[in-house]
Design a protein that fits this description.
There is one protein chain. The chain is built from 8 helices and 9 strands. It is an alpha/beta fold. The chain has a single domain, classed as Rossmann fold (3-Layer(aba) Sandwich). A 9-stranded mixed β-sheet has the order 1-2-3-5-4-6-7-8-9, sandwiched between helices. The protein is globular.
Length: 301
Amino acid sequence: MKAKAAILALILSFPLSIQAEPNSTPNNYLRSILSYDRHWPLQARSLEKVRVEGHLREKIVINGFDGEPIHLFLSLPRNARKAPVVIALHGITESKTQWWKREGEYSFPSAHRRQLLRAGYAVLALDARAHGDRILAHDFSDQSIYLQRGYFQGLRDIILDSSRDVRRALDWIATRRDLDADRIALFGFSMGANIGFISSAIDERIDASVLMAAVPIPPQQEDGLTQLASPFLFAPQLGHRPVLMIMAEEDSFYTPEAARALYRTIGGENKSLVMVGGGHDLPRSTARTAVQWLETNLPNR
């Protein structure tokens, strides 16, 4: 609760009059720290293939931008020869398995995964840094400690490095004959949505984005480092590609006003904002909303 209160206080201190700047770009320093060597070998390894709810799910490991392994789940729609892909990014304390979590708190992303597969989209979920199969010996086993103890610089690094890992996943998609590298969307929830703002702004290979319950971390803070992960810095670059934001009216991590301020910052007109009732654990009905929107903006032809 202290962590949520601290984040909310930070957001409330930020002036909400900020407007979109369609021609602005993340500065050169931001772009430089998010760059990576695309020639670094992927060395993809398939570890497991199982059927889950009637769909093939493959567990894959590829090398990250710095050589750290990235653990992926790929689930394919039935009878697909070259499926469009949705990169699925989980929330803090969760992992790629959140998109297969059948019940309990924060299990609503599984409804999104089912709807996407039925609509003919492949789902590629990956573990963020310090989460899931990527928890290293020096990491916290409970990532909520980053919030509880105010380790915001550590959380910033997770978000920024994970956004570069998304770019590595994009490289890997292009190596698969059963995936359509020309039709890629991103679905992100909470921390995954914050990662999604950065990835979608920096990498043109992402054609459409569904960003759910993103935390509107303000760009103006006393700590000049933490602000580098602020979605306000990257949102202006998303307007020329379709963007859907789904936010909650009673979310304990932000106010509706902060959510709308972040939405206004997205440049261009090809954007939509859906405010739903309830808190951070979004309703399963958001799956139908998101997938219907995607079918309009990135059709499975």
